[in-house]
Amino acid sequence: MSKVKIGPQTMLYPMPAVLIGTMINNRPNFMTAAWCSIASFTPPAVAVAIQKKRYTLEGIQETKVFSVNVPSSDMAKAVDYCGIYSGRNKDKSSIFTLSYGDLKSAPLIDECPVSLECTLIESLDLGSHTLIVGEIAETYLDEECTVNNKPAALKIDPLIFVPGTLEYFKLGNVVGRAYRIGKEE
Ligand SMILES: Cc1cc2nc3c(=O)[nH]c(=O)nc-3n(C[C@H](O)[C@H](O)[C@H](O)COP(=O)(O)O)c2cc1C
After folding, report:
1. Can you give the pLDDT at residue 157?
2. Ligand 1 pocket check for 80: Cβ under 6 Å
3. CATH code for position 175
4. Each residue's pLDDT tens digit, 25-37
5. In this structure, is residue 73 part of a structural domain?
6. Looking at residue 71, what is its pLDDT?
7. Ligand 1 atom 17, closest CA
């Protein structure tokens, strides 16, 4: 395989398209994030890279709590809206139906099949972005998105973001079982 150098790009395939929820000035706000990943198992933690000028960053740093909401693919339009417009100029508080969990002040999106409720444990200045690390205090999963009481990916139907072409996708086909297919002869 011959490869061309395309410079140090921020292209990792694929990326999730999630909604980061915070309270800012007593109003719930939601920001779309693709640069988001699980960061630790013990404690359970999630990391999100947030550009310094984002309104959301102010809310997280002030309240020290936030939510990570996993939308389903049919929510692409609302997700994109939250990634275009800032809560500084647009009220994004009534786009979704909201709930509050154990932490009380991290707004959770009812329409999203999975919501993580997080407390801020680290804030790392990396340049253009601040890497926010949150300990996952609780996970809320839509009962209808389970099979045998376990989360079912195809029912969750997460929205997938593809950098470069800037397109949204949905999950495709299963190609193998992790930690098993590698052992096959
Ligand atoms: C698909 C998509 C992914 C995005 N991912 C990120 C991200 O990971 N980090 C970030 O800082 N901004 C990201 N953005 C941009 C913010 O969502 C956008 O600037 C938003 O308006 C910020 O909202 P806020 O100012 O209310 O916090 C993304 C936008 C889109 C459409």
Report:
1. 98
2. yes
3. 2.30.110.10
4. 999 999 999 999 9
5. yes
6. 98
7. 83
Is 38 domain-assigned?
yes
Could you tell me the residue range of the domain that residue 116 belongs to? 15-183
Determine contact, residues 122/131, Cβ cutoff 8 Å: yes
Residue 149 banded pLDDT, cuts 50, 70, 90: confident
Shortest-distance atom of ligand 1 to CA 85: 21
Domain count, the chain: 1
On whether residue 8 sits in a domain, the answer given is no
Cross-strand partners of 134: 46, 120
For 20-66, how does the pLDDT look when each residue is reduced to its tens digit (9 = 90+)?
999 999 999 999 999 999 999 999 999 999 999 999 999 999 999 99
For the chain, strand residue ranges (E) read 15-16, 18-24, 27-33, 36-40, 45-51, 65-70, 98-100, 107-109, 114-125, 129-141, 146-147, 150-151, 160-162, 167-169
Domain-located, residue 99: yes
